[in-house]
Design brief:
about 30% strand; Stationary-phase Survival Protein Sure Homolog, Chain: A; nine-stranded mixed beta sheet; about 270 residues; globular; 6 helices; alpha/beta; two-stranded antiparallel sheet
């Protein structure tokens, strides 16, 4: 298959090398376009007021991989690849393997998920891969699952256009409990801003805090409650596969507003 791979951890991240090299060794045609530095938590930001530069990378990856580092955001990388660097659209857009989870509300901030979502916006099925740990450097299981998933899609494509958000537990392959199709959970954060003073005596702030997982589990209007959330399933050592879309319309909210008669106010 023809695959475009990006990330938000940058060109030198172990995760993207594990993903690109594993799939190249499996015989897929790989193009890598990713940020030239760490661009985590940039969401779906685009570069509009500065030029975007791309530099061809001749080393780092498997010899058959065509790779560029890009000065822009993860979404910029995918846009640039599809619009300027590739001669035709890929079969799939992949993003990752992110160093750290993208669960629940994390996806709203995630550059990893946004890079994959850019593929969906362009009509290309996409998958975001994350290793659910900031300390583990063992990407083998996640890369192996990515290879299996791509092989599956080469035989049986996704039935409709979507983004799959995949999180892999940071355990040995034999300790993974299996794979579960999940719904988006909820992660709340206790945000704190540490006030500091730089060497010139000027005050600055550093965002810190911690995640509170499973504070509550939101119901989904269109799904039965027995479908686990990604947050819960990853805790139980399952690989989580959550289908996502970019349409954020609140169907219940539309009905509620119609009931309030807001469409008659003007």
């Amino acid at each position: 298959m023809k695959l475009l791979i990006s990330n938000d951890d940058g060109i030198f991240a172990l995760g993207i090398r594990a993903l690109a090299d594993t799939l190249a060794e499996a015989g897929h045609e790989i193009t890598v376009v990713c940020p030239d530095r760490e661009r985590s938590a940039t969401g779906h930001g685009l570069t509009l007021h500065d030029p975007i530069r791309a530099e061809k990378i001749e080393t780092i990856f498997h010899p058959t991989v065509r790779a560029w580092s890009c000065s822009g955001t993860p979404s910029d990388c995918v846009k640039l690849a599809l619009g300027a660097l590739m001669d035709s659209f890929p079969d799939l857009v992949l993003s990752g393997i992110n160093h750290g989870s993208n669960l629940g509300t994390d996806i709203l901030y995630s550059g990893t998920v946004s890079a994959a979502m850019e593929g969906v916006i362009e009509g290309i099925p996409s998958v975001a891969f994350s290793l659910a740990s900031y300390t583990s450097r063992e990407f083998e299981a996640a890369a192996r699952f990515a290879k299996t998933l791509v092989t599956q899609f080469s035989k049986q494509p996704l039935p409709e256009l979507m983004l799959l958000n995949v999180n892999v537990p940071p355990v040995k392959p034999e300790e993974i409990a299996g794979v579960k199709i999940t719904r988006q959970g909820l992660r709340r954060y206790i945000d704190t801003f540490e006030k500091r003073v730089d060497p010139r005596g000027k005050i600055y702030y550093w965002l810190a805090g911690e995640a509170l997982e499973d504070v509550e589990q939101p119901d989904h209007l269109h799904l039965p409650k027995d479908i686990p959330t990604d947050v819960q399933a990853i805790r139980d050592r399952y690989i989580t596969v959550t289908p996502l879309q970019y349409n954020l319309t609140d169907a219940a909210g539309v009905n509620s507003l119609q009931g309030l008669g807001l469409n008659t106010l003007w």
